[in-house]
Design the sequence.
């Protein structure tokens, strides 16, 4: 099902908002999707329109689903773990990580009971300085005991080249930083697999 996303022209920003309307529109889109999931009985798999997939995505995705703990509440298939030194992920099994702070919503899975938590978190006023939907959503997971959130050790999804509707900047294909860039002590390491590339 294709979701008809709101744009800056469709929204009225709240008085406390301090960044462009397009960022608020992005938040409202996710609030609506999370609400739809919370009001149903099925898990939601959400791909943004600029999501790209590894050539071996189908095989790796099936293996990931077989390995990930079955009580998961939220999964990110291509998280941007830009603060690994401060919030290092925890390794759950050979190919599964439990991330802490991360952002990126281009490829996520969410279960109905946790979708309500996500929607309510995005409705909260006064986000501080982080007025970007995915960054604020990522703060939900800083406490590793708060949610059953997981991601693959190898990113399965990235974002395609083009002009971002949020930043207005043009990007090449991006495969974001993940665990392979950080050792267990939090030191940055180099990655040889192109799908680990930060872009």
Sequence:
């Amino acid at each position: 099902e294709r979701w008809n996303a709101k744009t800056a022209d469709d929204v009225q920003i709240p008085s406390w908002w301090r960044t462009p309307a397009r960022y608020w529109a992005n938040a409202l889109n996710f609030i609506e999707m999370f609400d739809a999931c919370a009001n149903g009985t099925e898990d939601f798999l959400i791909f943004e329109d600029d999501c790209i997939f590894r050539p071996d995505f189908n095989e790796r995705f099936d293996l990931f689903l077989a390995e990930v703990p079955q009580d998961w509440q939220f999964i990110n298939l291509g998280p941007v773990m830009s603060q690994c030194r401060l919030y290092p992920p925890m390794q759950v099994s050979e190919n599964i990580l439990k991330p802490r702070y991360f952002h990126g919503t281009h490829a996520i899975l969410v279960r109905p009971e946790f979708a309500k938590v996500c929607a309510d978190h995005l409705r909260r006023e006064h986000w501080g300085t982080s007025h970007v939907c995915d960054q604020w959503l990522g703060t939900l997971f800083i406490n590793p005991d708060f949610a059953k959130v997981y991601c693959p050790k190898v990113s399965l999804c990235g974002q395609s080249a083009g002009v971002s509707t949020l930043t207005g900047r043009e990007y090449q294909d991006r495969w974001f930083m993940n665990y392979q860039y950080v050792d267990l002590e939090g030191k940055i390491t180099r990655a040889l697999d192109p799908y680990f590339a930060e872009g």
